[in-house]
Structures are given as structure tokens and as C-alpha cells.
Specification:
This protein has about 270 residues and is α/β, with parallel strands linked by helices. It has 11 helices and 13 strands. Helix 9 links the parallel strand 12 and strand 13. It is globular, with a radius of gyration of 18 Å. Keywords: Hydrolase, Magnesium, Metal-binding.
Length: about 270
């Protein structure tokens, strides 16, 4: 019945300081030892998540940049989709970016328009960090994700401008209320999850999935056994009212639920 596991990271698998607890790591290692395929599905950069996977001590497929990149456990790239360069260049201009901290995710680099110290705290497990760049002059080539960070009210204005200018030519979502994320229109965690499951010859009906943010909507909406965190975004709860909620990420709720489902010792 349960044959594969997919989990978001921040607000889900990771604890309150954005690191993996020893209990969670032991749980994932025990499941891997049973032969259960593991998938990490996150908005984070691939290079960052590669380090988190190492900290967990597991082999796992990586869905990163909300599905714009997919890698297998040996770090072979299975799928990649970029935003059209002309659109990226336009999004980097003050009309859209003014007042927000702007980030670009490329294959091996994370670029940012201005320093943001608290972001570094979220990457303690991996050690991956950004490089400051003049983003309005960037070519727009090779960009998996654009990330705007600002107060939710300001991001709502940027989001409205993006929809007005590009319609549904982009996939626009939120990982956190203060993190607006933009990818190519065909990108989502749900689509990327299907790519991985097809490669494993497994069915979505047998997939257990965990998430807490709006960027988890497509993954939780298509997995056969979805679970939502007790700390989930209220908008996600409203969109998926039938998805059961478990405990909070700060209480290792994913690890506890997996031990229950797979009958591991608590």
C-alpha cells in the first residue's frame, strides 16, 4: 500500500531551526534500509538540498526549485525546466522587484540582489550560500526559479503585477507567506513527483506525501496518501480540506507518522 515517500523540507521534515533532527534522520535511514524509495521535494536550491540529504544520511531523489530540477540519488539530472530568459530579465527590473529581496536559482549558483543575513541561517546543514549580483543586468539564461522576499502585503502587489503582465505563462506560488516563487508554467512538485515515480515504475496511488505550503498543493493533490502539517498555511488547508493533518514540524511529526504507517518502533 505504502511504497514510496515524498516530503517537503521547511515547515515539514525539518525542525524549527531548519535542520533535521537526529530522530528524523534515524527514521529516514530505517525506511531506506527497508528498501523504501525516498524523495525530497522542496523549493530550495539543488546544491543546498544535496547537502541536507547528506546530513540526513540517506540516498534520495531530489525535487528542487519547486520541481524545476529533478536529480536521482547519484546526482544525475533527470529533469530541468527554465523560465524564458526574456521574462526573467523583465522580472528583474524595478517595476516588479522594487522593495523586495530578489533571488535567482541557477544550476550551480544562487544569486541575490542584496545581502540577507537571515537566509544564511536556513542553510546551516548544507553550507550553501548566495552570491550578490547586479540582477537587473542578468541575461536571464539558465534560471530555474525567481524568488521575491518581502512582507506578504508587498508580495501580493508583485504577484498581481506578474499575473497582469504574464497571465498564466508562469507558475507562481508561495513557499512561505513572505516568499513568492516563480517558475516556468509547466513546473510543479506534482509534475516532478510523477517524473520520479515513472522512473521507479511506481504509482502515485502508493505514494505517501507530506507538505505545509502552497507550493505543496499539486504534490498533495495527486499523491495517494497525502498528509498536511498541523502548521500548514491556512490557504493550503482551505484548498485541500480532505487532506488529513498531522502534528507540527517542531515535534518531528513526519517521522512519527512514518513510524506509524510503516510500523517502525517509536
Amino acid at each position: 500500500m505504502y511504497k514510496v515517500i515524498a516530503s517537503d523540507l521547511d515547515g515539514t521534515l525539518l525542525d524549527g531551526d531548519h535542520t533535521a533532527s537526529a530522530f528524523t534522520a534515524r527514521t529516514m535511514q530505517a525506511l531506506q534500509a527497508r528498501g523504501v524509495p525516498l524523495i525530497i521535494a522542496t523549493g530550495r536550491h539543488y546544491c543546498d538540498v544535496r547537502g541536507i540529504r547528506a546530513a540526513l544520511g540517506i540516498r534520495a531523489h531530489l525535487i528542487t526549485s519547486n520541481g524545476a530540477r529533478v536529480h536521482d540519488p547519484d546526482d544525475r539530472q533527470m529533469y530541468a525546466k527554465n523560465i524564458a530568459p526574456a521574462i526573467v530579465r523583465e522580472m528583474m527590473q524595478p517595476e516588479f522587484s522594487d522593495g523586495a529581496t530578489v533571488n535567482l536559482y541557477l544550476d550551480e549558483e544562487w544569486l541575490i540582489g542584496a545581502p540577507c543575513e537571515w537566509l544564511k541561517d536556513m542553510h546551516k546543514d548544507s553550507g550553501f550560500t548566495y552570491r550578490i549580483d547586479d540582477l537587473p543586468k542578468h541575461s536571464g539564461e539558465g534560471v530555474a526559479k525567481v524568488l521575491y522576499i518581502a512582507e506578504p502585503e508587498h508580495l501580493a502587489k508583485i504577484e498581481a503585477k506578474l499575473y497582469a503582465r504574464f497571465g498564466h505563462g508562469l507558475y507562481i506560488t508561495y513557499s512561505l507567506p513572505d516568499c513568492l516563487e516563480i517558475m516556468a508554467p509547466t513546473v510543479s512538485k506534482g509534475h516532478a513527483l510523477q517524473v520520479v515515480l515513472d522512473s521507479l515504475q511506481l504509482q502515485m496511488a502508493n505514494c505517501v506525501a507530506f507538505g505545509d505550503g502552497l507550493n505543496d498543493l499539486e504534490m498533495l493533490g495527486t499523491a495517494g496518501h497525502p498528509f498536511m502539517m498541523g502548521n500548514a498555511n491556512p490557504k493550503l488547508v482551505a484548498l485541500l480540506p480532505d487532506v488529513p493533518q498531522i502534528g507540527r514540524n517542531t515535534d518531528a511529526a513526519v517521522a512519527l507518522k512514518l513510524r506509524e504507517l510503516f510500523k517502525l518502533e517509536q
